[in-house]
Design brief:
Largest sheet: 6 strands, mixed
Strand content: 15-25%
Structural class: alpha/beta
Distance between the termini: 24 Å
Helix content: 40-55%
Order of helices and strands: HEEEHEEHEHHHEHEHEEHHHH
Shape: globular
Low-confidence stretches: 1-13
């Protein structure tokens, strides 16, 4: 581990991302529910996503991450604030259905495939109503199923596919109309560990080879770490936004933002040494080094999020 993180290749990726056009921008975005006791599901969210980014929005249940995704995807309307997606202000769009079909691809925790249609036919569904012939639809669907590794399962109905394969079909369907962004809400939540990892492999491959912008909503840090940027939400606000670095650095960030990390950063040495049973000079020196790294991992704030 060295002190010059992120490394050169990562810093280059971050610079390249920032030079790309903006795909999503929100300005003081709010979403309140209830007439009596008001629930502030989103409370003044500002964020920017550039073309080609692969990022995660994570946080505990009720933090507002799925509400944010729904507003970006035009599945809900904000109480106040603005959402700009691919240059269009969602508050002024008249044909919301067409906007969603052409601009946003959705992948949910449950695949939501039509049970009587084959994998290919399911991928073709979003293309209906577009200016494209049936033969073009078929070729596009076949190409996308090849892309997600299901060339030999095109004519299978969902009941003949595993959970991971169904989710791959859902990913191919999300790509059907070449969207500006894919919004994935807990896409690995109903899968076993291996299948979930394969779905994240697939997202990474699509992002790198197709340049597709992908935003993943998750509560799982392991999933979030597979992306290149993590936004953390709590109580309707974005409380942290950082580029994903190497595994050790991410572990240090997690520790810095834990109760133990708070103790290591804030407690007086004598009290902490007594609690940990660290009394030797080597132990004191090691603790000082760890505290230095935790301070850097916490962004120099010395506080939890």
């Amino acid at each position: 581990m060295n002190e010059t993180m992120p490394n050169g290749s990562q810093a280059k990726r971050e610079t390249e991302d920032c030079e790309q056009p903006v795909v999503v921008a929100t300005y003081q975005l709010t979403r309140y529910y209830g007439d009596g006791v008001v629930v502030r599901a989103l409370d003044g969210v500002d964020m920017v996503v550039h073309k080609g980014e692969f990022l995660a929005v994570m946080g505990p249940s009720g933090s507002g991450k799925s509400t944010l995704l729904n507003l970006i995807g035009a599945l809900d309307r904000p109480t106040s604030g603005r959402v700009i997606v691919n240059g269009e202000d969602l508050t002024t769009i008249r044909d919301v259905d067409r906007f969603r079909a052409c601009t946003v691809g959705f992948v949910f925790q449950l695949h939501n495939l039509l049970p009587t249609l084959t994998a290919r036919e399911n991928v073709e569904v979003p293309m209906h109503g577009q200016r494209i012939s049936k033969s073009q639809m078929r070729r596009r669907a076949e190409h996308l199923l090849e892309l997600v590794g299901l060339a030999d399962r095109m004519n299978h109905i969902p009941a003949q596919l595993s959970g991971g394969q169904r989710q791959r079909v859902a990913v191919a369907r999300a790509l059907a109309n070449d969207p500006a962004i894919i919004l994935a809400d807990e896409p690995t939540g109903s899968l076993d560990t291996q299948s979930g990892s394969e779905i994240m492999d697939l997202f990474e491959h699509i992002n790198q080879t197709q340049g597709t912008t992908i935003l993943v909503v998750t509560h799982d840090p392991r999933v979030a770490r597979r992306t290149r940027r993590i936004l953390t939400m709590r109580d309707g606000k974005i409380v942290d936004d950082h580029p994903v670095q190497d595994a050790v650095w991410e572990d240090l960030r997690d520790l810095a933002h834990s109760r133990l990390g708070e103790m290591l950063l804030k407690e007086e040495d004598e009290a902490l040494l007594e609690q940990l049973g660290v009394t030797t000079p080597d132990g004191v020196a090691a603790l000082a080094i760890l505290r230095s790294w935790l301070w850097k991992a916490s962004g120099g704030r010395g506080e939890t999020i």
